[in-house]
Amino acid sequence: MHGITGTSLTGTIPVFAFATLQMMFAVITPALIGGSIADRAEFGAWMLFITLWVTLVYFPVAHWVWQAADWIFKLGIVDFAGGTAVHINACMAALGALLVHRNRLHTGESPPAASPPSGVLLPTDMTGPYTRERQHVRHMTFEGNDRLTPGAHELTINGVRQRYHVAGRGPVCLVHPGGPGSHWGYMRMPLVERHMTTVYVAPVGAGESGELPDGQYSTARFARFVDGLVGHLAVPEIYFLGHSAGSFAGLQYELDHPGKLAGLILYGGAPVFGPDLYSEADTQISAFEKRHADQPGMPDVVDAYRSRLPRANKAELMAYMGRLLPAYFADYWSREEKLREWSQAVEIEYAPAKYRGNWDVRNELTKVSVPTQILVGRHDWICPVRWSEEMHEKIPGSRLTVFEHSGHFQHVEEAEKFAATIADFLADTSATE
C-alpha cells in the first residue's frame, strides 16, 4: 500500500475500490469450498487449511488472472466475475478436499446426503446438551424456513399453546413422545439427528405446551395437533416418528390424512389402545418375571404393576413409574447406573396419562398408504412384538425391525443400530436424501 492515496487509480478505477473487490472475491472463494468438507473436517483444521490455501493458492491464481503482466492474462483470458480465480479454483480445491475427507466425522457415512443450496457453515454440531469434545464444520440447512431453525418454537393451535424443538439436519421429521403425557426430553436422539431434522413435539398437556381446557385427551385429538404442526411447518416432505402412544397419534393422522406424510416410523407402538393392550401386557410382565427371577429388584417391579394402586396426581404417577422402570428395558440391572441417569429426562403429566381410551385401528391398517418403518424391542412388555408383527402384516409394503437386545427404548439400548435403521429408511424413501 506504499505510495497509494485516496486519489490513486488503476486505470480509471480507484485503487481502494479495486482492492475491496479483490478482497471480496478472496472471502467468497473459501466459502464455496466449505460445502465439500461440511461434517468432514474439524474446525481448527479447516481454519488452518483456509489460511494456507488463500495465501499459497488463491492469491497467486488471482494475480495470474487479473495482473496484466502475468501469464493467464497474457493468454487473452478475460475474467470479469471470477470464473477462473474463484469458481474453477474453488471447484478444484473442493474436489481435492472431498477426495481426502471422503467420510463424515464420527459417522462413517459416504457418500454424503444432498443439501439444499441455502444454509450456513457453523463451527458446532447444534445438538443442544449432546456436545462433542471437538468442534467440526457442519452445514446446517435452514431451507429458508425460520420455523425450522434449531431451538424452541411456539405456536397456537385451536387456542392452545403448542411447543416444539428443532435439532439436526436432513429430511424433516416430527418426533412425538409416548405416555400419553410424557415430556419430549426422553426422546432426544443425537445419533438420529445426524440424519434428519428432528422436530421434537411437546404434546399438549405435557409440560411446555398448554393443556386442553376440557381435559379430554384422546388419540384423535393428539392427531389433530399433529395436523396443525404439519401445516405450520409447511415443508413439501415431512416424516413422522411416534414412540409408544405417540405412534398411535401417527397412525391416526395417516388414516385421517392419507398420503400427507412422506413416511411413518412406528416405534414401540401398537394398533390398539385399550383392554387388549393391557391384557397382552399382563402376559409380558409374567415373562419379565421369569426372565429376571434371579434379580433382587424384580419382585418390587412386578408388585408395582400388579398392585394397581390408585394414582391421583403427578407425584404418585412418577413414583409408580420409577418402580416400574426396569420392566421397560431388556436388561436394566446390568446398566442400572447409566439408565438411572437417563431416566432423569422422563417426566409424565397426570392429566393426559389418565386417558385410557378404547382406540383400535387394526381393521384399518391396510389403508395406510405411505412408506412405513416399524421398530420394536424383543423384550418390550407394554407394546410387545405381537403388535408390531400385526402392523407389519397388514400395512402394505411396511418394514419391520426387531431389536433383539432392547425393551421399550431402543434409541437408548441399541442407539447405533436404531439410528442406522432410520437412516436406511430415509435414504430409501426421501426425495431430499
Overall pLDDT level? 83
Helix content: 40-55%
CATH class of the largest domain: Alpha Beta
Whole-number tally of structural domains: 2
Spatial strand sequence of the major β-sheet: 5-6-8-7-9-10-13-14
Number of helices: 14
Largest sheet: 8 strands, mixed
What's this, in brief?
With 433 residues, the protein is of the alpha/beta class. Helices cover 40% and strands 15% of the residues.
Describe the protein's architecture and organization.
The protein has 433 residues and is of the alpha/beta class. It has 2 domains: 9-100, no CATH class; 122-130 and 139-433, Rossmann fold (3-Layer(aba) Sandwich). Helix content is 40%, strand content 15%. It has 14 helices and 14 strands. The chain has helices spanning 15-37, 43-66, 71-74, 83-100, 219-233, 245-256, 275-291, 298-307, 314-324, 336-342, 350-353, 385-394, 410-413, 415-429; strands spanning 9-10, 13-14, 120-122, 138-140, 151-157, 160-168, 172-176, 197-202, 238-243, 263-267, 272-273, 359-360, 372-377, 399-403. The strands form 4 sheets. The chain has an 8-stranded mixed β-sheet with strand order 5-6-8-7-9-10-13-14, sandwiched between helices. Strands 1-2 form a two-stranded antiparallel sheet. Strands 3-4 form a two-stranded antiparallel ribbon. Helix 1 runs parallel beside helix 4. The two termini are 49 Å apart. Mean pLDDT is 83; it is low at 105-143.
Looking at this protein, list some descriptive labels.
2 domains, two-stranded antiparallel ribbon, 14 strands, alpha/beta, 433 residues, 14 helices, Rossmann fold
